[in-house]
Amino acid sequence: MHTRFEHTLGVVHTASRMFDEVVAREERSLSDLGYNPEGLNRDRIFLRLACLLHDLGHAPFSHASEELMQEGGKRVKHERYSGDLVRYFLAEVIDQHPANGNYGFRASEIADFIENRLDLGNLEEARRRRFWRLLLDGHVDADRSDYLLRDSHHIGVEYGHYDLDRLIISLRVATNDAGDPVLCVDKGGVHAAVGVVIARYMMFSQVYFHHVRRAYDYHFTEAMKEILSTAQAKDTTITNKTSWPPLGSKDQLQKYVDWTDWRVLGSLQNGEGGAHGEILRARNHYRRAFETIEVPDQPAEADFAAVKALLDRMVTLEDTAEKAWYDLAGEEILIREEDGKTLKPLSVHVPAIKGLLASKKKRLYVAARDKLKAKELVDEFRRKEGKR
Amino acid sequence: MTEQLDQRGRYGLIAELASRMEEHQFSFGKTALQKLVYLMQEVHGIDCGYEFTLYTYGPFSAQLLSDLDSTAAFEGVRVVYNDFIRGYQISPGPKNETVRAYAARFAAEHNDTIEEVVREFGGLSAKQLELRATIVYVTREAKEMGISVTTDDTAQMVYKLKPHFPIDDIKNAIQQLRSREYVDVH
């Protein structure tokens, strides 16, 4: 068991280490880009604050209930809640903190940074900070660097291990064609970068998208909808009863904050989670009946459709584990060549990396009682089709 | 109103764009893909199902990049790194026609718009596309915040974000976008 607070401290620590190494090793490049020691000191404090607050918006059971975050009918991510919590609840603490007299940070700037919003009134700052944001949300950032190792440690698996120290000392700065600074990895750190990519691949395939975990994510989401719809039934200020309280005002955010882990667990324990809540309590989760390969091609898609038709009403959940673990934050990890200027994607150096495509695996689930019946049908399908 | 593209439809659109870019003999890289889809979605209001944020090279969608990989896995496109231009090149793959069929209805419905975006922007360099997409992004953000902007305001804002583009180039790009009513500036 570990907490998001522990992870957050890890992100602050790792981002600081990354920042310090980049600054120490790239003093001249950063100077050429207009970063002076005073500005860098401000950037470092700002980055640490943003890292500390970036996950503030997570709901109970984190990503499982992120699906219930909406704004104007559209799904939003937890960073949007983090941003508004900083704006509405921490503005006074941050803006009027005595130490902030030295920096003049505004809570709204930190919120924009977390949400990756443009601060149109302060674009020069926004631009210089955009580079450092890559340490919070980029292809080799402190967030992922921390959670891979931390989750592996606490879960008791080896999949997320890689050489963090080597990766950190390999981080460099280069400029792209448009003259913007980009974070890259020195050629000597190619295999440290490969280690991260493989660790991410392994953690996503073996832990984060494990078939049982996905089933529990689903049950939790459905149970939470039930709990929310009952609790918010009489609240005339909330239109979408099965979503978390909406963004946009301090009152609604307070209602959101009031949904603590303890309250949700209590509701589940009290039987307020409906059928899916009962499944959680009885640990009688849906069972995987069929799944495709990680990146289904046309024949795999056709098989999936055929099995889905075969299982028909037995299918209780169709899941797509659609998540990129390599190009996750944007462009590939860039490797800076020995000339100190040329940038090439990691997969050019290590072509095997190209094979680690974003997972589009699809799964069909059935109720626990139908598991054997579904297995028989799927086995029969495989026999007929001559597939194993 | 058109339905949002589903997963396979998105692969179909990528294959469609690769085919049209080749027809016009335009170079098609990952940056161009990002910007063309962004412009189709934001300027022409065609919901392709992507969410864009401002990244290093301007508006960017990780989902789109992931879909490109999948489209390549379906052999709807080929994605090859070209050491000479130091970037990826996207071209129609052996099953391009089959994959394009996934978005056949969408492509037929939006044929003129897709063609206009390809013709108007497909021939531009990645850098020029980045500039135009950034201009659109900034003006959209301003509009969302209820800020009315002039050409000069927009040019100054974009220059602050992308100081390596000469201000005159930025203004020319704004004028070009404005003349086609792609951006709302005064």
Structure summarized in a few sentences:
By secondary structure, chain A is an alpha+beta fold. Chain A has helices at residues 4-25, 27-32, 37-53, 78-89, 91-95, 107-115, 123-133, 142-155, 164-169, 190-208, 211-231, 250-257, 261-269, 274-282, 298-311, 346-349, 371-385; strands at residues 70-71, 74-75, 171-175, 181-186, 287-291, 315-323, 334-336, 343-345, 359-366.
How would you describe this structure to a colleague?
The complex is a heterodimer of chains A (about 400) and B (about 190). Chain A has about 400 residues and is an alpha+beta fold. Chain A has a domain at about 5-185: Orthogonal Bundle (Hypothetical protein af1432). Helix content of chain A is about 50%, strand content about 10%. Chain A has 17 helices and 9 strands. Chain A has helices at about 5-25, 25-30, 35-55, 80-90, 90-95, 105-115, 125-135, 140-155, 165-170, 190-210, 210-230, 250-255, 260-270, 275-280, 300-310, 345-350, 370-385, and strands at about 70, 75, 170-175, 180-185, 285-290, 315-325, 335, 345, 360-365. Chain B folds into 2 domains: about 1-125, Winged helix-like DNA-binding domain superfamily/Winged helix DNA-binding domain (Arc Repressor Mutant, subunit A, Orthogonal Bundle), CATH 1.10.10; about 125-185. Helices cover about 60% and strands about 10% of the residues of chain B. The longest helix of chain B has 19 residues, at about 125-145. Classes of the chains: A alpha+beta (about 400), B mainly alpha (about 190). The interface of A and B includes residues 118, 126, 322, 342 and 360 of A.
Secondary-structure topology with pairs:
The complex is a heterodimer of chains A (388) and B (186).
Chain A: H1 4-25, H2 27-32, H3 37-53, E1 70-71, E2 74-75, H4 78-89, H5 91-95, H6 107-115, H7 123-133, H8 142-155, H9 164-169, E3 171-175, E4 181-186, H10 190-208, H11 211-231, H12 250-257, H13 261-269, H14 274-282, E5 287-291, H15 298-311, E6 315-323, E7 334-336, E8 343-345, H16 346-349, E9 359-366, H17 371-385
Parallel strand pairs in A: 4-7
Antiparallel strand pairs in A: 1-2, 3-4, 5-9, 6-9, 7-8
Chain B: H1 7-23, H2 30-42, E1 53-55, E2 58-60, H3 62-73, E3 77-82, E4 87-92, H4 96-100, H5 104-109, H6 111-121, H7 126-144, H8 151-161, H9 167-179
Antiparallel strand pairs in B: 1-2, 3-4
Helix pairs in contact in B: 1-3, 2-7, 7-8, 7-9, 8-9
